[in-house]
Design a protein that fits this description.
- It is a single chain.
- 28% of the residues lie in helices and 24% in strands.
- It has 611 residues and is an alpha+beta fold.
- It is found in: Membrane.
Length: 611
């Protein structure tokens, strides 16, 4: 009993590897896939609906522990199924004779099953024994075993054991046991059987088989005829993506794996997901195959390898890399680099110059030149400053240089190359139609030279926003001068009840012929009354609320020049400057260009120590 248990354990261990190989194969979907330790693969199946036909039908006997599977037609226990080899391993009976008599036994396989001639051997155990195999009345094999009284080893070469091969396609066998010579020894049992030679050769004691009732044997189960004409209805046994081998077996085509007997049992193998591909760089899986490709700057070398692309060079290309050529390249680079920098600077300066010219023309530069050229020779003309000069004078328009700012512009403190301190104002002119009036104002303001008037040194028209350069007055603005709480008030409190507007007061005095009352006594004393009345009437006309009735700046300038020429005295010129200043101030207020008017709240200073 112990020997039989050991042999069963050996059977399990021997078939375990082959059984694990079946795990990739599957039974018919919806059918039981396992009976005990046996994995069932289609065309075999438990029941008629789960097998290809009755010859492959199995039954699962659950009275055993674990359950055992049997061929329904042959009543043989199935140990494992091999789809690839087209074989099954089953337990076959052992013929035993302990009565020392001649014995015959017939064994018949039903269906497509035959004993495998390559994996089985007909074996006889014990001595003084003749074992015969016959088929259809003809002897097809015989072996003889002799006795060895001194002992026995674990070999089977005619001493106490003999073996012979069997013919192919053997289905029905008749095994016979005969004695070589008669003997009365009935204690010796002899046996004969067909056994799997692989299993038998791994036994440590071959004589333990005499105690078994069954031994494993291999059966071929190739279907009737060819695999593509299987069964009585001439239907195909192989599924899709399969081929029929020369052994009449179904097999998955290259690149597929699975059960070839199921309709869709063969599945594509993703060679790129495992090490089965031979690609050197990039692997792309395709149905049944895979293809190799290369990364950028590489090209295929054969079917699987890649090589780096080589630049195709002509016969003269190699001469480029000579040391002399490299020396020339370095020298040329050293020469071209400074030239490129100089060219870039020249082009940049040219571009900036064109931009400045564009701004100069847009800001009325040509009109200013025309006005300056038409002025009298004894009139001092204002200077045109460059944008670079003012940029440097204001320290790049630093915020620390801001003197004041308002809705009409921003005033910066600056220092000219000659050391003069000036006030640079960025004016805001949104309407280019006012440029002519702006230029006329610059011309007129440049002609004024009075101790109580901030002098205009010049302007810059090369920037997007016109710049005006005034004389810098360090003693504060007019507002601070009039309303500084630390100084004695200049405005008398008794004047609160008088007319609040100087313009209204002046116009009322002209209409009531009281011009002497509103003019400083020094002016009345130094000048002639006729000239004073002429200046006052001109100012009165400039203060007219109707723009059509007010004289233009050119008309005012012409009348003042006429009065000056008629007199020629310094007193008359001084009177003309003061009156002209008043006229210009009110005219600019009417034009609403406070950016250049001396009445600007951003920068309009008077000196306290210039009188």
């Amino acid at each position: 009993m112990t020997a039989q248990l050991v042999l069963q354990i050996m059977l399990v261990l021997l078939f375990r590897q082959e059984a694990l190989a079946q795990e990739s194969s599957r039974g018919k979907p919806g059918c039981q896939q396992k009976c005990g330790s046996l994995l069932i693969s289609y065309p075999f199946g438990l029941g008629a609906s789960c097998s290809a036909d009755r010859t492959f039908e199995l039954s699962c006997n659950k009275s055993f522990n674990p359950p055992k599977a049997f061929l329904v037609d042959n009543n043989l226990e199935v140990l494992y199924i091999s789809l690839k080899a087209g074989t099954i391993r089953v337990n076959t009976p052992v013929i035993t004779d302990c009565m020392n008599t001649n014995i015959d036994q017939v064994f018949n396989l039903r269906g497509p099953f035959t004993f495998s001639a390559t994996q089985n051997r007909f074996t006889a155990m014990a001595c003084n024994n003749i074992a015969l195999i016959s088929q259809q009345g003809l002897d097809v094999g015989m072996c003889t075993s002799f006795c060895n009284i001194t002992g026995r080893d674990n070999s089977c070469y005619g001493i106490n054991c003999c073996q012979i091969g069997i013919p192919p396609s053997l289905k029905i066998i008749n095994a016979s046991l005969r004695s070589i010579e008669s003997t009365n020894d009935q204690k010796r049992c002899r046996s004969a059987f067909i056994v799997d030679q692989n299993w038998f050769g791994n036994l440590t004691n071959i004589y333990s088989v005499q105690k078994l009732e069954q031994v494993p044997a291999v059966l071929d189960w190739r279907p009737y005829g060819f695999c593509h004409s299987f069964g009585p209805v001439n239907s195909s046994l192989c599924g899709s993506n399969t081929v029929c081998t020369n052994q009449r077996l179904c097999s998955c085509i290259e690149g597929y794996k699975g059960n070839p007997y199921l309709p869709d049992g063969c599945h594509d193998i993703d060679e790129c997901a495992n090490d089965s591909n031979r690609c050197q760089q990039i692997c792309t899986n395709t149905p049944g195959k895979y293809k190799c490709s290369c990364i950028d700057s590489w090209e295929p070398e054969g079917q699987y390898k890649c090589m780096e692309k080589k630049k195709t060079m002509g016969p003269y290309d190699y001469k480029i890399f000579t040391p002399t050529v490299w020396l020339y390249v370095i020298c040329i680079s050293l020469v071209l680099a400074p030239l490129s920098v100089c060219l870039f600077k020249v082009l940049k300066r040219r571009k900036q110059r064109k931009i400045k010219e564009k701004f100069f023309k847009r800001n009325g530069g040509m009109l200013l030149h025309q006005q300056m050229s038409s002025s009298e020779g004894n009139v001092e003309t204002n200077k045109l400053f460059s944008s670079k000069e003012l940029h440097k004078a204001t320290n790049h328009y630093n915020v620390d240089r801001i003197l004041g700012q308002g809705g009409q512009g921003t005033v910066y403190k600056g220092m000219l190359p000659d050391g003069r301190i000036v006030a640079v104002k960025k004016s805001k002119i949104e309407d280019e139609r006012k440029l002519e009036n702006f230029i006329n104002e610059i011309v007129i303001l440049s002609q004024l030279n009075h101790r109580n008037v901030v002098r205009l040194h010049g302007c810059c028209l090369e920037t997007e926003v016109p710049l005006l350069v005034y004389e810098f007055i360090p003693n504060g603005t007019l507002f601070e001068y009039l309303h500084d709480h630390r100084q004695k008030p200049i405005l008398a409190p008794t004047s609160d009840n008088e007319e609040r507007s100087l313009v209204t007061h002046f116009m009322l005095a002209i209409e009531e012929n009281r011009i002497v009352d509103v003019v400083d006594s020094q002016i009345t004393k130094d000048g002639r009354k006729e000239e004073l009345i002429t200046f006052a009437k001109l100012a009165y006309r400039c203060l007219n609320f109707s723009g059509r009735r007010r004289p233009t700046m050119k008309q005012v300038s012409a009348e003042l020049e006429s009065i000056r020429m008629s007199d020629g005295s310094a007193t008359a010129q001084q009177h003309s400057e003061i009156v002209a200043y008043s006229v210009v101030t009110e005219q600019i207020d009417a034009w609403d260009l406070t950016s250049t008017s001396i009445s600007s709240s951003a920068y309009n200073s008077l000196t306290q120590g210039r009188s």
